[in-house]
Amino acid sequence: MAKVNENFEKLPGSYLFAEIARRTEAFQDANPDAKIIKLGIGDVTQPLVPAVVDAMHEAVDEQRSADTFKGYGPYEGYDFLREAIVENDFKARGVDIAPDEIFVSDGAKSDCGNIGDILSRDNKVAVCDPVYPVYVDSNALEGRAGEYDVDAEEWTNIHYMPTTAENGFCPPIPEGKVDVIYLCSPNNPTGTVLTADQLKAWVDYANENDSLIMFDAAYERFITEPGVPHSIFEVEGAKTCAIEFRSFSKTAGFTGMRCGYTVIPKALVRDGQSLNDLWMRRQSTKFNGASYIIQKGAAAIYTDEGARQVEQALGYYRENARVIKEGLEDAGLQVFGAVNSPYVWCKTPDGMPSWDFFDLLLEKANVVTTPGAGFGPAGEGYIRLTAFGDREATKEAVERIKAVL
Asked: Three-state SS for 331?
């Protein structure tokens, strides 16, 4: 008899955003005339910039001719995109990364979930709390998280690092040894960032303990404050202990296009094996590479015109974040994030449970948010709002919330 992966049975309930969609759909069915505004899931709303669309049209036209037709591409991505990434995302910031340390994929979420394929199931994993669910769930599916403790709302073999207002949203370095550490800056869901000094402490810890940092920099283009690292490789020593994930989804509107990349330095070695080589072996086994047409579109954001257009789109979302932050603060709520991030992390009023506040805003304001409890135990008592909506809808949503409060 064929057996299934028993780790699926250990997962608690449905995936967070699937549950949000279920509750939203149920409310809409019961209230068909309600005009719901979604500030929950971080999906973009602005169209792809013209430079990207033009580049993809050109790539499509190339498929008409045998001379320019593209079939299977390189597993690790086309050189034109990898070289553009190196020049613009790293060398421009004084970081020495080589093209063969870049692996283009169909998105950061896929890579964050798949990276465990090259790691032992015996590794002890540490995550920030609250945390992006994919980090935890993907390790749980591979049997690395232990059992789920329903009462504690934690996995028994995951080390949770409270990342809260009380410690300035900087996860505390464990007293003992952990093997794999997930860090995200700008953070999803809190919208906060880690400074160079804070990241240096983690890099030193990882190198001293032969640990591995999984650094999610999917939102780095939203950083506006000077002195905040956009890449962990801006920190000395990171090349021997870190893997970095990047995405074009939120920075260039590729949520429906699917493209991102992962950086694995050749200097990163564990158990005598190059993790760069292991990831290449994994990708060539399970992945046939991102679409040529999509990669052509991604490369267009690094042109002068493409960069200008993308920056305009980012400015649109940054302004939305400001509107949400200031509006909720005017309503008397405690708010974090938004400055260097498209996410606004808001404390619920009077200690109201996250899902209760979610339901209240859905039912009374017809606004969809994301309950903080879905991101881990320390997320209880918060909600997350995203700045990716339409400007007028965002303003209306804020006014509705203020009216309810």
From this structure: coil
48 neighbors 224 (Cβ within 8 angstroms) = no
Strands 180-184 and 212-216: parallel
- Amino acid (1-letter code) at residue 376: G
The confidence score (pLDDT) of residue 177 equals 94
The values of phi and psi at residue 71, to 5°, are -100, -130
Q: What is the pLDDT of residue 17?
A: 82
- Rounded CA gap, 147 and 244, in Å? 28
What are 287-305's pLDDT values in tens digits? 999 999 999 999 999 999 9
Helix ranges (DSSP H) in 150-291: 196-209, 249-252, 275-286
Instruction: Give the residues across from 191 on adjacent strands.
Output: none
Asked if residues 73 and 295 have their Cβ atoms less than 8 Å apart, the reply is yes
DSSP label at residue 260: E
Instruction: Sort 174 into a burial class: Cβ within 10 Å, 0-12 / 13-18 / 19+.
Output: middle
Task: List C-alpha distances in Å: 391 to 129, 252, 336, 362, 397.
Answer: 30, 18, 20, 19, 10
Band (pLDDT 50/70/90 cuts) for residue 163 is very high
Q: Give the separation between CA 131 and CA 111, rounded to whole angstroms.
A: 16
Q: Is the dihedral of CA 83, 188, 329, 41 positive or negative?
A: positive
Q: What's the sign of the alpha-carbon dihedral 288, 249, 51, 81?
A: negative
pLDDT value at position 130?
A: 95
The answer to whether 250 and 218 are in contact (CB under 8 A) is yes
Do 77 and 280 form a contact (C-beta atoms < 8 A)?
no
> Which amino acid does the sequence have at 314?
L
Tokens of 326: 């200031």
Of 41-45, 116-120, 329-333, which range is least confident? 41-45
The pair of structure tokens assigned to 160 is 């949770």
pLDDT band at 157 (very low <50, low <70, confident <90, very high): very high
Nearest to 245 by CA among 258, 228, 267, 264: 264
37-53: average pLDDT: 93
Q: Inform me whether the pLDDT recorded for 336 exceeds 80.
A: yes
Q: In 253-390, where does DSSP find H-type helix?
A: 275-286, 292-300, 304-330, 354-360
The three-class DSSP label of residue 315 is helix
> How do residues 366-405 score in pLDDT, each as one tens digit?
999 999 999 999 999 999 999 999 999 999 999 999 999 9
